[in-house]
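Section 4.2 – Deliverable D4.2 (structural model, holo form)

The reporting period included a commitment to supply a predicted holo structure for the target in complex with thymidine-5'-diphosphate. Inputs used:
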Amino acid sequence: MAKLKSKWVCQNCGYESFSYLGKCPECSKFSTFVEEIIQDKTEIKSKNSSMNIIKSENSGYTKIRDVKIDKTVRISSKMEEFDRVLGGGFVEGSLILLAGDPGIGKSTLILQAAKNLSEQNKKVLYVCAEESTSQVKIRAERLNANSDNIYLTQQNCLEEIIKQTEELKPDFLVVDSIQSVFSANILSSTGSISQIRECTNIVMRIAKQHNITTIVIGHVTKEGNIAGPKVLEHMVDAVLNFEGERYKTTRILRGIKNRFGAISEVGIFNMEDGGLVEIKNPSELFLSDREINTTSGSTVIPTIEGKRCLLLEIQALTGATPYPNPRRVARGVEYDRLLQILAVLEKRVGLNLSKQDVYINVIGGIEIEEPAADLGIAIAVLTSSRDITTNKETVCMGEIGLSGEIRSVDNLEIRLKEARKMGFKKAVIPYISNQTIKERLDKIGIKLFEVKKIVDAINFIVN
Ligand code: TYD
Ligand code: MG
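Output (structure tokens):
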């Protein structure tokens, strides 16, 4: 039988096949298979062992009560927004994947953090696998990050990077970006899933072995995934996404996975001439362009991101459609969620949208995932279609059930406090049956209107 020399690997999930497949049976993506050379396993093993990077210190088992907890040492990035997403700073020896679209500001963020770390006497080795050292130096001058403790190396070869890391013994290692690094032991091309997986794996072992905090920068594919997302997410301790709209300067750092902190925390920045500036009061920024005399189809909702509350404006526009099938466009809101809310409005409120286009936009480029935003979306659509002006001093929140009932939301107190802080006077909230909770919320200093149905809510939000 002929010896197989190559395999086809799905570049999205890592599924392997001996022949080309148009659709991946594992992740159902199309045209993701790339041919890679099969290597002799013994060859890779011998090369790896010669690099002396696999070391198992622990052998045998221990009673759970006898296991000693390693003290986690945290190092602050001196950026409150960054630290928040990390769960209180970098955990020493952890491996962090920072992902985002090209040009969003990943290198800028890390160089700024490197500057702050170097000021705390931490040695940082910055691997410029994508840009030249002089390009990074130009950025560093812009950010005022010309520190004695930051070392640059223009290197793509992983084995060379490891050699330099072992020689310099830095506290922090930055690999910018993992897609541009290759291991000489792997035959497939740079940026392929086998290369990314292997390189991350080796970097991880080096990080753990020498207790070096490592930040790996990764690009996002056209579909919005980190290249080789599943394989990388399992390996690293934290995955942070850096997001933002192309023509806006607001940047959002989001924790997708974090072994040392809460996920779904966000850090908000503004990209300016001198680098990223932290936004300490994001609600103010997101509401700053709001019309003073609010028009129809605009509501403000308090939404929870991690541990904090952001006030966001939701806008809706409805109008007669020139198409046979009306259009539904949702920006910042899940499409299916919008369809469900529209269905409830049609059935329970009697709003006929079958000949109307509906556009929804969340200001600030934030994606709202929580159902507590349902009521805000519904009221925005309702007031736009009936051309009713909403009250500019009212916020609303509540999940909408299929029978048009308003269901409870969590963290009500945090939401109401943030609304009051931002100068809102009234809030439309789900009905509260518990009297003690009601009394506590009443003390916040914002007038509450409890509602059980969408139709009740509309009376309180109109001007
Ligand atoms: P960069 O960090 O190179 O992005 P990435 O590493 O994610 O590809 O940032 C690139 C953009 O940021 C570029 O369009 C210029 C802009 N920028 C500023 O606006 N101000 C700054 O101080 C810096 C360094 C960059
Ligand atoms: Mg970059």
